[in-house]
Amino acid sequence: MKKYLVIGNPIEHSLSPKLHNYWIKTNNIDAIYDKEKLNYEELESIISKVKKNEIHGINVTVPFKNKIIPYMDQLSPEAEKTKSVNTIYANNNQVIGHNTDIAGFELSLKKLKYDVSGKKILILGAGGVVPSIIFALNRMNVSKITVTNRTKEKAEKLKDLFKELILADWGNVSDFDMIINATSVGLNTNEKIDLDLSKVGQNKIFYDVIYNPHETNFLKMGKELGNRAENGKFMFIYQAHQAFTIWHKLMPEINDEVINIVTND
Ligand code: ATR
Fold it and tell me: How many whole angstroms separate alpha carbon 178 and alpha carbon 206?
């Protein structure tokens, strides 16, 4: 039986095991997908198990997407550019680090039928998933990306990866067509982002990377102000879909049951 894992800290709330195990079962694959809470010191030994074929694939989540990189033998071009790895597998005894968050975000916008080309984007936050979102937005030919983060130094580090990025002070809300919440604010139901978005106008899209809870205060406010609001459930589903396809060499179905797994937790 092949073994797959998602690693992170915290990890209790990850829905990856439910989703992957559903696809494993419905495709009659002899495998199991588990979750493991790790500390930094344990990264090296878990990766050595991939090399020894004891573990056949790993998903990586907060806070290890960048810290795992030194233990990889090779990075895909996407992982290299974003300095972010969320999917690991072995190929010819080499441990490969790849990034499926990029395709996850891109495919989620396609699914939502939102054409982002030529649009002005404002990203809130500078955490682990932001380089992947920026990479995807650039690939989809947006006109301008502004990042604002509570801790400015962290946003400045992003500029080392993406020179064209515009940085704004926290509280300084620039004009945008699409605003993306990539902070962790909203994971707890009552949390509110301390930004004044009341004057942003209408006919924009508010996109929250958070999908659980399915409607954050950020999305509620976007709607109340007359804008479209979408959560990150399709980004989550598509990043998993891409990882599954790499590991098992087949494309699982994204049906209502899959959407229910992510929606009804
Ligand atoms: P990490 O910081 O380890 O990459 P993350 O969950 O990927 O973790 O990122 C958390 C993001 O949410 C960061 O951009 C963080 O801002 P800081 O860099 O200032 O910490 C942001 N964040 C968390 N709590 C916040 C709050 N109360 N207000 C605004 N931003 C917040």
Answer: 6
Question: Rounded mean pLDDT of 191-211?
Answer: 95
Task: Kindly state if the Cβ of 171 falls inside 6 Å of ligand 1.
Answer: no
Q: What is the CATH number assigned to the segment(s) 2-99+237-263?
A: 3.40.50.10860
The phi, psi pair for 99, rounded to 5°, reads -130, 110
Verdict on whether the full-model pTM lies above 0.85: yes
Phi/psi for 146 (5° steps) reads -110, 135
Q: What's at 139, amino acid-wise?
A: R
- How far apart CA 243 and CA 261 sit, in angstroms, is 17
Domain boundaries, the chain: 2-99+237-263, 103-231
Tell me which of 9, 149, 190 to substitute to probe ligand 1's pocket, judged by most ligand atoms within 8 Å of the beta carbon.
149
**Do the domains spanning 2-99+237-263 and 103-231 agree at the CATH topology level?**
yes
Q: In the CATH hierarchy, which fold is given to the domain comprising 103-231?
A: Rossmann fold (3.40.50)
Is the CB of 83 within 6 Å of ligand 1? Answer: no
Q: Is the CB of 118 under 6 A from ligand 1?
A: no
Q: Measured in angstroms, how far is the CA atom of residue 117 from the centroid of ligand 1? A: 27
Which of 35, 37, 52, 65 is the catalytic position? 65
SS3 256: helix
Which of 72, 16, 18 lies closest to 43, judged by CA?
72
Going by pLDDT thresholds of 50, 70 and 90, the confidence category of residue 240 is very high
Q: Whose Cα sits closest to atom 9 in ligand 1?
A: 127
> Is residue 112 in contact with ligand 1, taking CB distance under 6 Å?
no
Indicate the pLDDT class of residue 257, thresholds 50, 70 and 90.
Answer: very high
In 3D space, the residue among 199, 191, 195, 237 whose CA is nearest the CA of residue 216 turns out to be 191
